[in-house]
């Protein structure tokens, strides 16, 4: 794509960002739960729980996340560090959300607790898997996922990018925790935004094709890399900058995907 077209496209995306990257447009979105936690060590746990359950209809996602967070009180970190395992099992054994059972959630929370105990925080664990030579978060994310999973059965709540998965929910988790603006609350400093990967859902996949960043139909890590590289041409320091504003079209009840197509069309 010639530089002149890139320049025009970036102006269009900046217009969309300025108009739609607003906290007033967040609801309904599991991201809204993160705003309730000022302590980053609580927020990172909430973010991992909320992102892990971020599949299906958004109204049901919100109900599922709320059910998991309710027993954990004001400080999920304190809950995980202090709660007796038997009591935790009792709180979540009846949980059910689509493919996720109470057993999966209990194992996920147990994995989080073990990582926090061993490394001090989820961020410290992720940083342990980081290398200054990595061009993306994929190696560190793979390490992080393996530490959470261990020998536990967390079902499909977290996917390993080393196996080719698009890891949409993990990429979403990282966007929330690394970026900081009107929408993303941030809190992590161990990862530069330049290494983030696009959370590839149906809406971003459609946007990526509209923008000419990919022709791929399969939503896998190869497609994630192609679309992320497209955005990186325009915004190398923050390739996922436009994710929230672009994916509002099709998610927010008052915003239609066809409106986005009209806004970003390149003649």
UniProtKB/TrEMBL annotation:
Pfam hit, one: DUF2400
InterPro entries: CHP02757 (IPR014127)
The protein's name: TIGR02757 family protein
